[in-house]
Amino acid sequence: MRRRTPAPPSPLPQRQGVDAVRVRLPFSEGWATVGDYLIERLSGAAPGVVAEMLDSGLVVGADGEPVAAGAPYTPGLRLWFHRDLPPEVPVPFPLDIVHRDSHIVVVDKPHFLATTPRGSHVTETALARLRRELGVPTLGAAHRLDRLTAGLVLFVVRPEERGVYQTLFSERRVRKEYEAIAPYDDSLALPRTVRSRILKERGVPAAREVEGQVNAETLVELTGRKDGLGRYRLTPRTGQTHQLRVHMSALGVPILGDPLYPVVTGPVPAGDFRRPLQLLARRLEFTDPVTGAEHRLRSGRTLRAWESYQDWDGCGVLRTSP
Fold first, then answer.
1. 146 in active site
2. Which residues, 6 or more positions from 42, have their beta carbon under 8 angstroms from its beta carbon?
C-alpha cells in the first residue's frame, strides 16, 4: 500500500482569503500530458478556459513555476491554480468575534453567511472574511454551520492544531446547544429525545429519514411559547447534515423560515435576506485540547421571529430586513 505523504504548502498566495485549488494527478494511466488530464478533470469549465490557463502560466507546480500543457503526465504530481472569483452579493451583517487567542477564534456567524467556501459562496464566507479582516491566512474551520443557520463557529489558527480541535467534534466532546422558533403544538409532549436514521444524498437539497440503524439523536425541549409559536432548545447528540431541521419537521413543528423542510420551496436567492432560518447555535462548551482552558461560549444574537412576530408574513418571510 502506497504511503501518503503530507502535501507541500501552496506556492500561490491566497486571493481575497481564498486558497488556491490543489490538484494531484492520480496514480493511473490514460493521459499523455498534464493538459489532457486537466481538460478532462475540469470539464465543467467553459470551453478553452483550462487551455488558456495553462498557456498563460496560471497553473504551477510545487516550486511555483508554470506547468505547460504539453508537460508529460506524471502520476502524483501536485498542481495549484486560482479559479476565477466572480462577484458575490455581500452579506451585510457583522461577523462578531466571541473569543480569540493564539490557538482559536470563535465567531458569532450571521444568517446567510456560509462557513467555508463551497459552490457559489466563496469570498462571502466566514472563513474568507476572517482571513482578510484578521490577517490570519492560516485560519481554518474546525466544523461548519449551514449557511442559513446563525451562531457560534470555531476556527483554528494553526494548521498543525486543526486536527485535534476537529476531533473534539467527531468524538462528541463539545456540548452544542441550539435555539429554534417553530409553531407551538400543545399535543406535542416535550421534552423528548428524537432518534432516527437520516440520509443526505449528494445533489439532493433535503435530507430524509429512512429505515435502519439510528445515526441521529436530538433532545428537544420547549422553553417558551407565545403568539402560536414555541421557542425550543435543541441539543444534538450527533451531527448529521440538517439533523435539527429534519427532526423538528418530523415532529410536525418545522423551524420558521426553512426553505427545505417540510417542503422544498427552492434555494434562497442571493441578496434576499428576508427569510432568515430561525435557528441559532446558541452555546458551545468544551475543554480546550491544547491549553486545557474551559470554554463556555454563548451567542449574543436573537431570533427575530420571537422578538417581533408581527414583522413576519404568513409564509415565514420578513417584511423588513433582519
1. yes
2. 49, 50
Q: What is the pLDDT of residues 219-232, one digit of tens each?
A: 999 999 999 999 99
Are 119 and 153 in contact, with CB atoms under 8 Å apart?
no
Quick check: 139 and 128 in contact, CB under 8 A?
no
SS (H, E, C) the chain: CCCCCCCCCCCCCCECCECCEEEECCCCCCCCEHHHHHHHHCCCCCCCHHHHHHHCCCCECCCCCECCCCCECCCCCEEEECCCCCCCCCCCCCCEEEEECCCEEEEEECCCCECCCECCECCCEHHHHHHHHHCCCCCEECCCCCCCCEEEEEEECCHHHHHHHHHHHHCCCCEEEEEEEEECCCCCCCCEEEEEEEECCCCCCCCEEECCCCCEEEEEEEEEEECCEEEEEEEECCCCCCHHHHHHHHCCCCCCCCCCCCCCCCCCCCCCCCCCCCEEEEEEEEECCCCCCEEEEECCCCCHHHHCHHHECCCCCECCCC
Predicted pLDDT at 316: 46
Choose, from 146, 227, 258, 288, the residue flagged as catalytic.
146
Domains and CATH numbers, the chain: 21-81 (no CATH), 96-311 (3.30.2350.10)
Cell 474551520 belongs to 141
- Residues lower than pLDDT 70 in the chain: 1-6, 309-322
Let me know the angle formed at the C-alpha of 9 by 8 and 10, rounded to the nearest 5 degrees.
120
- pLDDT for 1 equals 39
Evaluate if pTM is beyond 0.85. Answer: yes
